[in-house]
Amino acid sequence: MRLGIFGGTFDPIHYAHLLLAETFREELRLDEVRFVPAAVPPHKQDDEITEGDKRVEMLKLAVAGRPSFRVDTSELSRGGVSYTVESLRRLREELPQAEIFFVMGGDSLAEFLTWKEPGEILKLATPVVARRGSDAPLDWSHLSGVASAERLAQIQQSQFVTPLVEISSTDIRRRRAAGRSIRYRLPRAVEEYILAQRLYERPRSGDT
Known about the structure:
Elements (H helix, E strand, L loop, with lengths): L1 E7 L6 H13 L4 E6 L14 H12 L5 E3 L2 H5 L5 H11 L4 E7 H5 L7 H7 L1 E5 L18 H8 L12 H9 L10 H10 L11
Parallel strand pairs: 1-2, 1-4, 2-3, 4-5
Helix pairs in contact: 2-9, 4-6
């Protein structure tokens, strides 16, 4: 099994997330992509985040009818700060024969050595950086201290270029707080849920 992991806050999920996930699935010939909403992201411990059950419901609405996409609530069930290495260890125990890939941003690659147990992460799974065609080539050299040259070569062969879609969860939250439309930025079912639950009607610190 070739399994893709897409972690994040998904607050809310939107079309850029979904297009990235579909490109990830297609380019790496994945059998399944799991969306893993974080309980408390390490880099957002002081941020206000929507309740986990609401983020999960939006995810389920967004991926309904797509058999290759699945919502994994393990990090929310575990609670506390969500560390990638802990989620990957659990997956490796669950699926010992699977080939596991996880997608991350270019800024995360630059900070990867500050993550919890980066060397162990590279043993458990292959990172795939979401980069656009106009971005500078990725620099993997700083990972040479935690991975062999052979492993780095394997990782580099798994990279792909993502489509450019300028949609962000922060912008959607800002638009809602300002009373502006969020139509066509996320699936209609997710938009209706946000309206029904009256999510993001007030600005958050950091969103203003």
